[in-house]
Amino acid sequence: MVTNYHHSAIAGQDDRVTVATDVSFAFQPLLSTRTGEPVAVEALARPRSGDVYGLLRSAGRAGRLVETDISLASRAVLAAARPDPPLPLHVNIVAATATAAEDLARFLRPALAQTGRKPADVVLEITPPFSRVHRAELINGLDALRAEGYRIAFDSLGDGDLPLSLLADVGPDLVKVDAHLVAGLPDDPASLAVVECLAQYCTRTGVRLAAVGVESEDQLLCLNRLGVRLAQGNLLAGESRSGGISLPLPRPVAEIIELNATTGASTVPLVSDYLRPATTMSEEATAEDARATFADDPKVTSVVLVDAEGRPVSTLLRSRFLLAVAGLYGHALNAKKPAVRHGDNPRAIRADATCLQLLDLVGEADHDRQGDEVVVVDADRVCVGVVRLSEVVRGVAEAKIEQAAALNPLTRLPGSEAVDRDIDRRIHAAEMFVVAWLDVDAFKRVNDTVGFAAGDDLIRHIGRVLSDAERDLPGTRVAHVGGDDFLVVTDLDEITALASRLVDRQWTTENMAVTVSLASLVCGVGSVSSYREASRLLAPLKQRAKAVPGSSWVLGRPGTDRIEVLRGARAQHARVS
Length: 577
Fold this sequence. Notes:
Blueprint: E1 23-32, E2 38-47, H1 52-61, H2 65-79, E3 89-94, H3 95-98, H4 101-115, E4 122-127, H5 135-148, E5 151-157, H6 164-170, E6 174-177, H7 179-183, H8 189-205, E7 208-212, H9 217-226, E8 230-232, H10 251-262, E9 280-282, H11 287-296, E10 302-306, E11 312-317, H12 318-325, H13 330-334, E12 348-350, H14 355-365, E13 373-377, E14 383-388, H15 389-406, H16 416-428, E15 433-440, H17 443-450, H18 452-472, E16 477-482, E17 485-490, H19 495-503, E18 507-509, E19 512-514, E20 516-523, H20 531-547, E21 552-556, E22 563-567, E23 574-576
Parallel strand pairs: 2-3, 3-4, 4-5, 5-6, 6-7, 7-8, 9-10, 12-13, 20-21
Antiparallel strand pairs: 1-2, 1-8, 10-11, 13-14, 15-17, 15-20, 16-17, 18-19, 21-22, 22-23
Helix pairs in contact: 1-2, 2-4, 9-10, 14-15, 17-18
Keywords: CBS domain
Protein name: Diguanylate cyclase (GGDEF)-like protein
Organism: Actinokineospora auranticolor
């Protein structure tokens, strides 16, 4: 039982352990890999000497582990400044502390009250060791903390003693993949397979998956491709001694985020597409003023309280507000008092943000408020309106349906617009790239000889090989432009690996041998001006490739008639004119 200590230090000077009052806190954001936006901030204890693990080990040896950990958690809340817009605060506690849920919640309450936070604003990250904790006591403790309003995350998955069965029993809100596994990406097949399995698990269960210790651009690209939507590490943003967020992102990271968004789908609606006028009142308004506003217009579902410049300060939600002030004694107790006392921290988003960014904000910030309106602000954070989440969700769903309709029904690959966008992006970024055209030789003869079904099987097989290549090669994008034609845009250092997968393979369908032709165009910086020009220059290369016996690969460059035949009957790296 935890007794007789203040939340900022352990009372009682026991010689067995000295709780480090010289503990400061650093803060590191957790970012969306889809948008690059911060979705939470984690408090990290930093003792003046040693590290927090040593501090906790000393406390454990002295029998004061839980007391010390509760003190650190409370002080983390007090130390965290509230960023603008407000973000959830992640606080680390060891598994043993979670079994003392009543004591933890009791000592967190004054810290939350002092900083203006609610339990729903805090995510408790449960850290190892788990093996020394009674399983039933841990689950009961986590249930009690959830009942208080806290959200639960498991940390160090993949390098600690967290049982996978505990994930199924608890169903945490978030799971963090340990930095040891992330360090193996993208080259270690075992690490890749583990993270891929975890991503699939989280997709099926609705648990959010975050990667810790992201240090390289290759890791970030790999995480994007695996569907890991949250990440944390020095590549994205380092630690800060305040609760602020050290953004903007470094340029290479921002480009990766942009690439992920650009090549992902068809156009996503903007928040401004769903803008509605906001009902606003001064932050000085009384509860009676707000009640009258709701009573005068039944269609008003929320009121935004703004400061003198029009920036949102708080939001009043109709049902919650009226429940608080319209009871038997509610009006008498609250009518003359400020309405802001009954408000929630405003969730605000820029009008030029995409709807996916809005859904990330809502999904990561507060699951219990997903039915509310969100305040829309301009570049100066002045309120310009609100959007209803139900309408945004419907709009994104419709965009996804349109995207699915654009996929080829045989291969599930996008059409040429995916390569078109990627080529334009590379041209704009002044990058060198390779665009390639893959074609099945004499495909009509396949259909005429072994049937249309066999031809469809062949196209599906080629589509799977190309999808695998896109997954394994970070700089590669593929498209199915119809029939037996496929387009690829890739990095210069990836074209050989891609060609090997396509041309050095023995293609068959219904025991019929088939050959393919790959025409590729190396586009140096400034050598082509558009996707249209690149496709025009590819056309004669395709004809040259098809003229080479067997499966072939030819390579050309803008501004020259010389073509290298790299695969096929005449392929000895010979140059032909």
